[in-house]
Amino acid sequence: MPLEVVIKGLRFETSSARGVWKYKLMLPVKKEVEPVSLGEGDTPLIPLKSHKRLFVKFEGANPTGSFKDRGMTLAVTIAKYIGAKSVVVASTGNTSASAAAYAAKAGLECLVYLPRGSVARGKLFQALLHGAKVVEVDGNFDEALEEVIARYVDNTQGHVYPLNSVNPWRLEGQKTIAFEIYQQLGFVPENVVVPVGNAGNIYAIWKGFRELREVGVTDRAPRMIGVQAEGASPVFKTWLAKADELLPVERPYTVATAIKIGRPVNWLKALTAVRESNGFMLSVSDATILEALKTLARSEGIGVEPASAAPLAGYRVALEQGLIGQDETTVLVATGHALKDPEVRF
Ligand SMILES: Cc1ncc(COP(=O)(O)O)c(C=O)c1O
Ligand SMILES: N[C@@H](CCOP(=O)(O)O)C(=O)O
């Protein structure tokens, strides 16, 4: 399992900084360290018209249009602090867009490994725009990440700093989604619904809520509900089978390219989040993802990419099956902006 940061002496006090960095006392960064920031975080929590107690946490409002920026600001800050000159990621698109932008801000070289032909146009444009060097891999995301891990994580000779979610600083930044949800609602919701791909974010958010409990801000915690696309649902299958080993999907497919992942590195962390929180996993069809995307766009005015519509598709299934109630406060985490993937049709 990828490493985890454990922080002693956490204090839930916010500073006058904005976004992620206002929670510096909850982050594993020394006071004197200067953040590499683009103003990430402070994203809106939007109430939906369709259900009274349903909210969308719109992560598309981050500087590069996805939640990855919250993790990248931390991880690139650390990269710079330790004197790295280059950073590397494998990506289905958003991680590369975010890494490229933060590397540019920090003055670092950025190398991105992308599965050839599988990255949404807006995301590829962003990586190139910010000056990343793109390596196209003849394979899927899992194979691209394997190559990055073999070259730059297991073999540290190259001195290139990896920024995928095997890097625990990433999750530390992403956990601030929980802090914001808590502060925006004024309480801890019953359910938080998250799309699951490489599987780090659901754990990061859970870690954030757990820490709020640890520091005594609240004694409550939400159920964490993970949603995967049917054709790319290894964590769902593993959860359903109560298996101790990952049940991988060798040839994942889904219209939601951001979560087209068959061997997620953080699968065990995702299961930990779901199990510890008494939550559950769901899988949803591409048709229902696109239907949810259309509802968000046309009835609520919220433009998201397909992966980010999976939580609404999952919410509908959960309601239908009586797994959650309409009277429960539920937050859907909409992870990426519609402009990322302008070729989506529904
Ligand atoms: C838009 C979007 N949503 C969801 C995810 C899934 O997040 P995670 O990999 O942390 O499970 C990703 C990337 O993985 C993404 O880019
Ligand atoms: N959807 C992700 C996949 C990689 O996830 P990471 O959390 O390990 O960076 C992407 O945008 O590339």
TrEMBL record:
<feature type="binding site">
    <location>
        <position position="335"/>
    </location>
    <ligand>
        <name>pyridoxal 5'-phosphate</name>
    </ligand>
</feature>
<dbReference type="InterPro" id="IPR001926">
    <property type="entry name" value="TrpB-like_PALP"/>
</dbReference>
<feature type="binding site">
    <location>
        <position position="94"/>
    </location>
    <ligand>
        <name>pyridoxal 5'-phosphate</name>
    </ligand>
</feature>
<comment type="similarity">
    <text>Belongs to the threonine synthase family.</text>
</comment>
<comment type="function">
    <text>Catalyzes the gamma-elimination of phosphate from L-phosphohomoserine and the beta-addition of water to produce L-threonine.</text>
</comment>
<protein>
    <recommendedName>
        <fullName>Threonine synthase</fullName>
        <ecNumber>4.2.3.1</ecNumber>
    </recommendedName>
</protein>
<dbReference type="GO" id="GO:0009088">
    <property type="term" value="P:threonine biosynthetic process"/>
</dbReference>
<keyword id="KW-0456">Lyase</keyword>
<keyword id="KW-0791">Threonine biosynthesis</keyword>
<dbReference type="GO" id="GO:0006565">
    <property type="term" value="P:L-serine catabolic process"/>
</dbReference>
<comment type="pathway">
    <text>Amino-acid biosynthesis; L-threonine biosynthesis; L-threonine from L-aspartate: step 5/5.</text>
</comment>
<dbReference type="InterPro" id="IPR036052">
    <property type="entry name" value="TrpB-like_PALP_sf"/>
</dbReference>
<dbReference type="GO" id="GO:0003941">
    <property type="term" value="F:L-serine ammonia-lyase activity"/>
</dbReference>
<feature type="modified residue" description="N6-(pyridoxal phosphate)lysine">
    <location>
        <position position="68"/>
    </location>
</feature>
<dbReference type="InterPro" id="IPR004450">
    <property type="entry name" value="Thr_synthase-like"/>
</dbReference>
<dbReference type="GO" id="GO:0004795">
    <property type="term" value="F:threonine synthase activity"/>
</dbReference>
<dbReference type="GO" id="GO:0030170">
    <property type="term" value="F:pyridoxal phosphate binding"/>
</dbReference>
<keyword id="KW-0028">Amino-acid biosynthesis</keyword>
<dbReference type="InterPro" id="IPR026260">
    <property type="entry name" value="Thr_Synthase_bac/arc"/>
</dbReference>
<keyword id="KW-0663">Pyridoxal phosphate</keyword>
<dbReference type="GO" id="GO:0009097">
    <property type="term" value="P:isoleucine biosynthetic process"/>
</dbReference>
<feature type="domain" description="Tryptophan synthase beta chain-like PALP">
    <location>
        <begin position="36"/>
        <end position="336"/>
    </location>
</feature>
<dbReference type="GO" id="GO:0006567">
    <property type="term" value="P:L-threonine catabolic process"/>
</dbReference>
<dbReference type="InterPro" id="IPR050147">
    <property type="entry name" value="Ser/Thr_Dehydratase"/>
</dbReference>
<feature type="binding site">
    <location>
        <begin position="197"/>
        <end position="201"/>
    </location>
    <ligand>
        <name>pyridoxal 5'-phosphate</name>
    </ligand>
</feature>
<dbReference type="Pfam" id="PF00291">
    <property type="entry name" value="PALP"/>
</dbReference>
<dbReference type="GO" id="GO:0004794">
    <property type="term" value="F:threonine deaminase activity"/>
</dbReference>
<dbReference type="InterPro" id="IPR000634">
    <property type="entry name" value="Ser/Thr_deHydtase_PyrdxlP-BS"/>
</dbReference>
